[in-house]
Design a protein that fits this description.
single chain, alpha/beta, three-stranded parallel beta sheet, 12 strands, 13% strand
Length: 469
């Protein structure tokens, strides 16, 4: 409301072009009000659409004379004179396009839900890479109201590039519910109070910390302090990396248990009266040689292809079929290696099984070979499990120096158990010859080669990731 110098009052009104245009009966052209004809209306609509197509948020501005400072509401919203259109441009952050590309590679589907004009929404979506095809599905809130639940499900299932425009909070809730009904994991971002219901109902509600309202922040489970969409992509990348590191940590720890168990079973089936590895040796491996490399695996840098695979199924267990298969694969190779060196050492001596005693030098060398074989193969195993699909040589053998250092500490401890007389007395071990270490290193290299071959097959058999939500 504005009071002019002559004492009269004037109301200034702004709003969406189509809504405000319907309340106008005149248009101001160079300071002169003329009746608003159908041709003039079409001209204004075309201008508004052209501005919206450039990614501008468009507002119409109008005015009218009113009888006093407190006019009735009906006087403010009728018989207006259109003054013009105002376009506002809110440029997307430069990092958003890269983040959208990363989400696409990761199989994450992005659905834009906005209150903006459809043309504005499509222009912005194209600018940041959400829309790339020639004909995305652009649906307004009014069109969404005309669809039943089956229609909404069909819309979400059939449209890879979907823009929902001119929507209300109820529409956002309906879309979230429909996606969850299809079994999707849904993340919703928002900053306003009207986003709060969808943020609360989503599997992951992400609110803006700097520009968001208190209601939005309270409804969300995650708050972005920098209000950047790129932070979501970074969080997904880091979360996937941590999950992979946990899995690799478990594969590393559990695979050598097979190498500890199988030789005992093999010796029992072969009728050998003594165990190939003693309980105190197993404790030395589990508590001495394996702890530091396992911790170093937890600090493994993220793989370059961590965002190049689709999201894992929401019901997938940590010990999935793939994880168990990898444990059996690596553990089986280790078990075959240590069984081979033990039986070879025993048979090469020519001594009958029944004549072996705990203090026999050949037996002590054989069990030392078994323990050293597990420790050395675990060094190569740690290198092998660092990556899921990428070659460890491409990732860089020295990119995790903590792991190399931890593995060397484990081998040094094993060498001390083999050569230091006080430790020989505790572990009942014997000194190993350089040729023995060379054989064990060969078995370790064989394990790494087999795992590299498995990764190569996996890389060449896998297709492009499918988009999820």
């Amino acid at each position: 409301m504005h009071r002019d110098a002559d004492g009269t009052y004037r109301a200034c009104v702004k709003g969406a072009p189509l809504e405000l245009l319907a309340r106008c009966d005149a248009i101001d052209r160079e300071g002169t009000g003329t009746p608003l004809t159908e041709a003039s209306r079409a001209e204004v609509v075309a201008a508004a659409d052209d501005m919206a197509g450039q990614g501008l948020r468009v507002l119409a501005v109008a005015r009218r004379r009113v009888p006093g400072p407190r006019p009735a509401l009906g006087d403010l919203e009728s018989e207006l004179t259109l003054l013009g259109l105002s376009g506002m441009y809110d440029p997307p952050r430069p990092e958003v396009r890269d983040a959208v590309d990363a989400c696409r590679r990761a199989g994450i589907r992005i659905v834009m839900v906005t209150g903006d004009h459809p043309l504005t929404a499509e222009a912005v979506a194209r600018r940041v890479g959400i829309v790339r095809g020639p004909a995305p599905s652009v649906v307004t809130g009014a069109q969404l109201d005309a669809l039943n639940d089956d229609g909404v499900d069909a819309l979400l299932a059939g449209s890879t590039e979907l823009l929902l425009c001119r929507v209300s909070p109820e529409h956002k809730m309906r879309v979230v519910t429909a996606l969850q009904r299809r079994g999707e994991v849904v993340a919703v971002t928002g900053d306003g109070a009207n986003d709060a219901p969808a943020l609360k109902h989503a599997d992951i509600g992400v609110a803006m910390g700097a520009s968001g309202t208190d209601v939005a922040r309270e409804a969300a489970v995650m708050v972005l302090l920098d209000d950047s969409f790129a932070s979501i992509s970074t969080a997904v990348e880091m979360g996937r990396s941590v999950y992979r590191n946990i899995r690799n940590f478990l594969i590393y720890l559990f695979s050598h248990n097979i190498a500890e168990l199988v030789p005992i079973l093999a010796a029992a089936f072969a009728g050998f009266p003594l165990v190939p590895i003693t309980a105190v040796q197993i404790l030395a491996i589990d508590l001495g040689s394996d702890v530091l490399p396992a911790l170093a695996l937890g600090a493994e840098p993220m793989e370059a292809d961590v965002m190049d695979s689709p999201p894992r199924p929401r019901r997938e267990r940590l010990f999935s079929t793939a994880v168990m298969g990898r444990i059996l694969f690596l553990g089986g190779i280790q078990a075959l290696g240590v069984c081979a060196v033990f039986l070879w050492h025993i048979h090469a001596s020519g001594i009958p099984y029944a004549d072996f005693t705990r203090d026999d030098p050949v037996y002590r060398e054989a069990i030392t070979m078994v323990q050293a074989g597990i420790v050395v193969s675990q060094f190569f195993n740690a290198l092998a499990v660092r990556t899921d699909r990428q070659s460890v040589f491409r990732a860089g053998l020295l990119s995790n120096p903590w792991l190399i250092g931890a593995g060397c500490v484990g081998i040094a401890l094993m060498a001390a158990i083999s050569y230091a007389p006080p430790l020989q007395a505790i572990f009942n071990t014997a000194p190993l010859a350089p040729a023995d270490w060379a054989v064990l290193a060969g078995f370790g290299a064989l394990l790494l080669t087999a795992e590299e071959a498995r990764k190569w097959v996996l890389r060449h058999r896998s297709g492009s990731p499918k988009e999820g939500t």
